[in-house]
Amino acid sequence: MQSKEKKEKEAHKFWNTQPVPQNESDVQEDGVIEHKEVSDIKQEPYKLPSDFEWYLVDINNEKDRTDVYTLLSQNYVEDSDAVFRFDYSPEFLQWALQPPGWKQDWHLGVRVASNKKIVAFISGIPANLSVHESKLHLVEINFLCVHKKLRSKRLAPVLIKEITRRVNLTGIFQAVYTAGVNLPTPISICRYFHRPLNPKKLCEVGFSQLPHNTTMASHIKKYKLDVSFLNLQPMQEGDVSQVTALLNEFLSQFEFHQVFSEEEVRHMMLPIKDVVFSYVAKDENDNVTDFTAFYSLPSSIARNPKHTHIHAAYLFYYAPKGLGKDQTRSRHLMNDTLILAKQANFDVVNCLGLSHNQQFLDELKFGKGDGYLHYYLYNYRCKTIQPEQMGLVML
Ligand code: NHW
């Protein structure tokens, strides 16, 4: 074996053992990697180091919800300087973890046996994806977290193997997940973009820098939003079926996308205060013509005398009239989305450079971020998806 290849193999002691492509040349065509039956799956949980125990979180129980919230708010994803850390709210977690078909068995915690403190977590929710024309019923894995004091002890692989076992026992053998880090082997890599709404605060907290030769006044002016184009109104229960049809039609243009049932749209898209914000435009016959949604994901800020959080809205799903063929309409829809996020007091709108987002990023003054999000499939080979063919947005 060549020494470079050997190094790479050693570099991923866990992922080398998993049914994922080990590199891009491993993917000649799409398809399942390892065929398994429920009867092949062991019944007993994987062993944890002594002192620790598995714990199924009851996300509807306030104490459990607060415990998971506390773990994540103190230990979840940070930027490379450890200044900004995702601060998903307890209400957000309650919503995100319970779409139709959710299972408590897939809200998996690890506790210290002696004091019952939750020190690690991983979750799965069911979803249907369309991948290059194939339909996959799988799980979306998210919120993998190990307490900072327990890092680098190979606990993450145990969590991943145990959730895999629990998912496999229900007859599901594929998963999708995203991460900032590069693992074997991304199916797509999408860049983050940021659209300042409160440019002064973003400079004060070090999220952005005032460009050279620019005054703060002109910087603020640059990001002003005034004209709105569509009469967007909060989405309501009565819009669910039309939004489902419109959104699925829009998404079906992409090689890789989620397929939503009405029940899933009802759960994931109807507005929830301070969690998910969604709006529709309607024509004179009261038919939904456009849809847009964003979710609230603040980041806490370490060591700042003035601000504790950046209030970030993340662009979730949208579907413009004309399904993006009319680029002006897409830009108008997104312009109005920015105005609504500003009205809701967000400091910034974040999104990825996927699906049709290139249609509006420059014109609406989104800036390129430093971060990239890698998309992965577990136990399924999939030829590379270009960002503009990616139609899956995860929380
Ligand atoms: S990405 C967010 C992940 N969470 C964070 O970044 C929070 C802060 N970091 C931590 O809590 C969204 C820890 O650093 C974590 C690793 C827990 C990340 N995905 O225990 P060890 C998600 O939640 C590999 C996958 O010593 P640690 C998606 C790493 O490459 N693997 O590390 C989650 C190494 O393996 P290798 C990751 O730092 C998807 C091994 O972990 C990873 O104490 C999960 C080291 O383990 C990541 N983000 O804990 C996969 N980060 O082979 C689901 C590191 O390289 C798969 N690693 O030696 C599908 C399962 C379901 C299938 C069903 C059919």
Notable characteristics:
19 strands; Aminopeptidase; binds 2-oxopentadecyl-CoA; 9 helices; acyltransferase; 14-stranded mixed sheet; NMT_CS; single chain; alpha+beta; 395 residues; 2 domains
Q: Can you put this structure into words, describing what you see?
A:
The chain contains 9 helices and 19 strands. The protein is α+β, with helices and mostly antiparallel strands and 395 residues long. α2 (62-75) packs across α3 (90-96) and α7 (240-251) crosses α8. The longest helix has 17 residues, at 327-343. The radius of gyration is 22 Å and the shape is globular. The structure holds 2-oxopentadecyl-CoA. Residues 12-15, 75-77, 139, 141-146, 151-157, 160, 163-164, 167-168, 172-175, 177-179, 181, 183, 378-379 line the site of 2-oxopentadecyl-CoA. This is Glycylpeptide N-tetradecanoyltransferase.
CATH topology heading of the largest domain: Aminopeptidase
Count the DSSP helices: 9
The CATH H-level homologous superfamily of the largest domain? Gcn5-related N-acetyltransferase (GNAT)
Give the radius of gyration.
22 Å
The hetero molecules present are: 2-oxopentadecyl-CoA
* Span between termini: 40 Å
CATH architectural category of the largest domain:
3-Layer(aba) Sandwich
Task: Decide which structural class fits the backbone.
Answer: alpha+beta
In a few lines, what is going on in this structure?
This protein is of the alpha+beta class.
What order do the helices and strands come in, and which of them pair?
Elements: H1 3-11, E1 31-32, E2 52-56, H2 62-75, E3 84-86, H3 90-96, E4 107-112, E5 118-131, E6 134-146, H4 155-168, E7 175-179, E8 188-196, H5 199-204, H6 216-222, E9 233-234, H7 240-251, E10 256-258, H8 262-269, E11 276-282, E12 288-296, E13 299-301, E14 309-310, E15 312-319, H9 327-343, E16 348-352, E17 367-378, E18 380-381, E19 390-391
Parallel strand pairs: 6-7, 10-19, 15-16
Antiparallel strand pairs: 1-18, 2-4, 3-13, 4-5, 5-6, 5-10, 7-17, 8-16, 8-17, 9-11, 11-12, 12-15, 13-14
The structure holds 2-oxopentadecyl-CoA.
2-oxopentadecyl-CoA binds next to strand 6, helix 4 and strand 7.
